[in-house]
Amino acid sequence: MPLPTPTESPSCVICSRPLADGLTIPTTSGGTVHVRCAERQARGAARRRTLRAGITAALLAGLLAMTAALGIAGWGLGAEFGGLRTEGWGVWAVLAVLLIAAHILINRRWWHYTVQSARLWWRWK
Length: 125
Prior knowledge:
By secondary structure, the protein is mainly α. The chain is built from three helices and two strands, in the order E-E-H-H-H. It has a domain at about 45-125. A two-stranded antiparallel ribbon has the order 1-2.
């Protein structure tokens, strides 16, 4: 970002409005933004992370349910559809753990903020 000339006032990096009309904070890249603009962007990012975490959780749960229904992990309805087979629970449990680990890795930042929020809530409860 080019530095403002002495005749023009500095502006917010996010909204490009002058910084004189509100509280401001510096950015890590050396610019300055309004607190309201930074908060609005942070809320939007949190919504996107939450939506992404929910979608990936639903997809991974669907994958786990599909393997159960098809009997891929040894946990299907059986040929006669008379009930759940109980052999192969170990394979199914390993698959579930792998899918949970995948969810944590895919949504690492969401998990970080969720755990941090839970810790703060627990501390101040």
